[in-house]
């Protein structure tokens, strides 16, 4: 998804193909965690000390690829399982498979909380699914004083069917947190935070069918575009979010002893 120039674009087949290759191939990736059904890798060539590229995989038994795809799209259900989320909402739609949205997330204290405005696109491929995003600027949603505006260079999910009621979930993220973070933070993410997050998504998938039966079961605008009532957004309204235009804070001296991860955050 790295393209030159200043043009905001909707990812096409080549972008999805490249993302899938990154998820499935092992070259250049170094295993940081491998326990049970969860594996976490980091990429060998980092752009800087703060921009980290991390990939995760979890095997999900008793959860179909279709169900997990619904879980990752359903903004109302996300409030039930994503305890790191502070706020999320859709801003507007670009096409039948692309929109713009806002997400703020609770970082483990004493780190400051982050937020994003992203252009998201999704693609069903038979029994497999992909969702990818990158950061954009929208004039009505500038950086807020109570958050550090972070930059998603490339983030997304690949859901691979592994039978009628089983799947494999990949999550790949390359984010600039707009801060000089101590090395122990990166280690905590790969060894503790990331595996817990993947397990949380898996558990959400197990519980989703029952929850959805009680909460507007036929409403799935990511599957049925005619249900989408979001206002239209034009690409002309958006611009690329460059990291160097945002505040950069120095959290490199924060002590690991001060770090607190609650049961909800974990």
TrEMBL record:
SMART domains: START. It comes from the Eukaryota. Residues 25-210 form the START domain. Keywords: Acetylation, Cell projection, Cilium, Cytoplasm, Flagellum, Lipid transport, Lipid-binding, Membrane, Phosphoprotein, Transport. It is found in: Cell projection, Cilium, Flagellum; Cytoplasm; Membrane. GO terms for biological process: lipid transport. Transmembrane segments: none annotated. The gene is LOC109310264. GO terms for molecular function: lipid binding. InterPro entries: STARD10_START (IPR041951), START-like_dom_sf (IPR023393), START_lipid-bd_dom (IPR002913), START_lipid_transfer (IPR051213). This is START domain-containing protein 10. GO terms for cellular component: cytosol; membrane; motile cilium.
